[in-house]
DNA sequence: CCATTCACACAACAAGCGTTACGGTTATGT
DNA sequence: ACATAACCGTAACGCTTGTTGTGTGAATGG
């Protein structure tokens, strides 16, 4: 019975992608039903057919963006500090696609800060990311590629650094081209390297 | 002739402070003329009397916030790494007032990213802050309290770190109380300390 | 003490918003 | 083939928005 065969969920994906494009271009302040519909080459009738309310529409778009970001192909890397580096590189806006995603997340903070529920969602999201990073750091420490120290703190520090770098790169792209972002990330990692001759050498047992 | 004597500029300050309060509470998405007027205990008639348009109103409020932030009393500190630490501590949301200011700036990124002109304003602002930080870092290096290395890069790294920490602290206040923020900042600075026995010891000339 | 002028409340405006109702078209199941 | 139901364009709704115009009261200058 459907005009386009039963891929109801595929249509919702199309709509969400239009939401992403509008958000990346005009932010939450410019996100209207009509703008999304126009971006999709359709009318608001389509939108309300697939989403009850604007809130649902945005929630689905952000949820899908998060899951897609989480499921995207990751940079391959050996264990140790190399894996930490790869995980952090995966966050930075080094490609147009990553730039778009990051733009959306940064923009979403305005709405999130005004709504405790959304703030909690974001907090959970970043806490999970921090935990994953911590595991990689523990492994790198075990291999003696990172100096010893509370891995939770090192993870929180690295995450803060990368997050701030994302913001800088978005607001001042010319000053933070990919090469510079990578350079700064490597500086940060170098500062976490084991001190030569001090504690933190590889364990051997 | 004025009802309240000629402090035209003082009234504009009052209005701007109401804007700050609305922004800190409801973000840019909740910033309306009526909301500002209500916060002020007045009507929109007052607002339009002092500002031609909403754009002017917001611009003045943010401009004033920036100047006030820049002119506020700074943490006293000796020269060297202590001054770097103090400058970075001055940015973090360690007090309710600093939390409010940071909330506003983070929220403003949504609007800024959608407008190249505003993005450029922000870029200039952060570049200036980075330059000031760089000067402090150069001095700390000269005193042998910071390891050698391109001071511009160290400044950019420290600024990114602090900026990201601000975001984390705002979105997840329970996980980042003042003590934890300071702890993480000190971790970052410790990682920049001169390596014992390596290069970077104090010059004596 | 009167004319003037600033300060601001009040009310109205058009435009744009999210949302709802409806109707025509099209593919499917029987 | 026919009934059915999903798809979605069209149009209207009530509401909120930024902005404008008008009017009133208070303070001032001559």
Describe the model.
The structure is a homodimer of 205-residue chains. The first copy, chain A, has 205 residues and is an all-alpha fold. Chain A has two domains: 8-67, Orthogonal Bundle (Arc Repressor Mutant, subunit A), CATH 1.10.10.60; 74-190, Tetracycline Repressor, domain 2 (Orthogonal Bundle), CATH 1.10.357.10. The first copy, chain A, has helices spanning 8-26, 33-40, 44-50, 54-71, 81-89, 96-113, 116-142, 151-171, 178-190. The first copy, chain A, is elongated and about 65 Å long. Chain A binds a DNA duplex (30 and 30 nucleotides) through α3.
So how many helices of chain A?
Answer: 9
Rg value of chain A: 20 Å
CATH architecture field of the largest domain in chain A: Orthogonal Bundle
Mean pLDDT of chain A: 93
CATH homologous superfamily caption of the largest domain in chain A: Tetracycline Repressor, domain 2
**SSE run of chain A:** HHHHHHHHH
Strand content of chain A: under 5%
- The level 1 CATH classification of the largest domain in chain A is Mainly Alpha
CATH fold description of the largest domain in chain A: Tetracycline Repressor, domain 2
Catalogue the unreliable spans of chain A: 199-205
The biggest beta sheet of chain A, please? none
Tell me the quaternary state: homodimer
* Approximate shape of chain A: elongated
Short structural summary:
The first copy, chain A, has helices at 8-26, 33-40, 44-50, 54-71, 81-89, 96-113, 116-142, 151-171, 178-190. The first copy, chain A, is elongated and about 65 Å long.
């Amino acid at each position: 019975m459907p005009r386009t065969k039963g891929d109801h969920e595929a249509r919702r994906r199309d709509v969400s992608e239009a939401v992403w494009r509008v958000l990346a271009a005009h932010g939450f302040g410019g996100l209207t039903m009509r703008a999304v519909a126009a971006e999709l080459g359709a009318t608001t009738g389509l939108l309300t057919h697939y989403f009850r309310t604007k809130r649902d529409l945005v929630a689905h778009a952000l949820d899908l963006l998060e899951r897609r970001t989480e499921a995207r192909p990751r940079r391959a890397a050996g264990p140790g500090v190399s894996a930490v580096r790869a995980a952090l590189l995966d966050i930075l806006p080094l490609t147009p696609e990553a730039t778009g995603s990051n733009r959306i997340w940064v923009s979403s903070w305005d709405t999130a800060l005004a709504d405790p529920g959304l703030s909690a969602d974001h907090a959970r999201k970043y806490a999970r990311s921090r935990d994953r990073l911590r595991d990689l750091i523990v492994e790198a420490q075990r291999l003696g590629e990172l100096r010893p120290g509370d891995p939770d703190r090192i993870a929180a520090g690295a995450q803060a650094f990368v997050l701030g770098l994302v913001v800088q790169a978005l607001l001042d792209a010319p000053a933070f081209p990919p090469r510079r972002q990578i350079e700064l990330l490597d500086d940060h990692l170098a500062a976490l390297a084991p001190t030569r001759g001090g504690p933190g050498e590889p364990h051997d047992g």
